[in-house]
Write a structure and sequence with these properties.
Strand 4 (93-95), helix 4 (102-115) and strand 5 form a beta-alpha-beta unit. The radius of gyration is 16 Å and the shape is globular. Helices cover 34% and strands 26% of the residues. By secondary structure, the chain is α/β, with parallel strands linked by helices. It has two domains: 2-120, HUPs (Rossmann fold, 3-Layer(aba) Sandwich), CATH 3.40.50.620; 140-221, putative n-type atp pyrophosphatase, domain 2 (Alpha-Beta Complex).
Length: 222
């Protein structure tokens, strides 16, 4: 079955793509939505421009759609991008990295229903600690690209998801009710390497921006 992967460059969408390939799905293209609104209800924004480099090392075509990021209106932009994938690559299904957001999952399902294609969410309701452990087991190199909740601060930016990271976010889950995989929007991630990549991406420029409990990592990769 020909599929398009909704791709943000973060751990969830990338790992979903890995699982799809492992289960013999054909990823015909990636779809990335570049939102002008950093507080988008639907879309990951930190390092979204770098999905171009990730697509290159995955050797999979990338469809990019820009959106102003206005609530609900941005869904029309997503639908246009998916319709483009149907037309250009004859896709029959969309694969998403949704874990627990009913808002996101339900709206993507509605779009797929209108376009008469299927929608797969391989990570839906997956235990978040288990997900982090699987990333390490399957040799995913993932860094933190943004933090947006107390007590996370700029010191977390650029950290790799490893065993120590899992231990620390597990403690934060107990103490502050933080979702350990960032499913509540507490943090965002970026994948530098994984089994889907033909080569590892390297950071060549880095800058940190933000204040209080909202910090972003800006990087260029090659």
């Amino acid at each position: 079955m020909k599929c398009a992967l909704l791709f943000s460059g973060g751990k969830d969408s990338t790992y979903t793509g890995y699982l799809a390939v492992k289960n013999k799905y054909e990823i015909s293209c990636l779809i990335s939505i570049f939102s002008e609104n950093k507080e988008s209800y639907m879309f990951h924004t930190p390092l979204i421009e770098q999905t171009k480099k990730q697509a290159e090392v995955m050797k999979i075509p990338l469809i990019i759609k820009k959106t102003r990021g206005e609530k609900e209106q941005e869904l029309l932009d997503l639908e246009r991008a998916i319709a483009d994938a149907v037309k250009r690559y004859k896709i029959e299904a969309i694969i998403t990295g949704a874990i627990g957001s009913v808002y996101q999952a339900s709206r993507i399902h509605m779009i797929c229903d209108r376009l008469k294609i299927e929608c797969f969410n391989p990570l839906w309701q997956k235990d978040q600690i288990e997900l982090l452990e699987e990333l390490i087991k399957n040799k995913f190199e993932v860094i933190i690209s943004g933090v947006f909740a107390y007590p996370l601060d700029e010191k977390w930016l650029g950290r790799k998801i490893d065993k120590k990271f899992i231990e620390e976010v597990s403690e934060l889950q107990k103490k502050y009710k933080i979702n350990p995989a960032g499913e509540g929007g507490e943090f965002e991630t970026f994948v530098l390497n994984c089994p889907l990549f033909k080569k590892e991406l390297k950071i060549i420029n880095k800058k940190i921006t933000g204040e209080k409990n909202s910090w972003r990592l800006e990087v260029e990769v090659e």
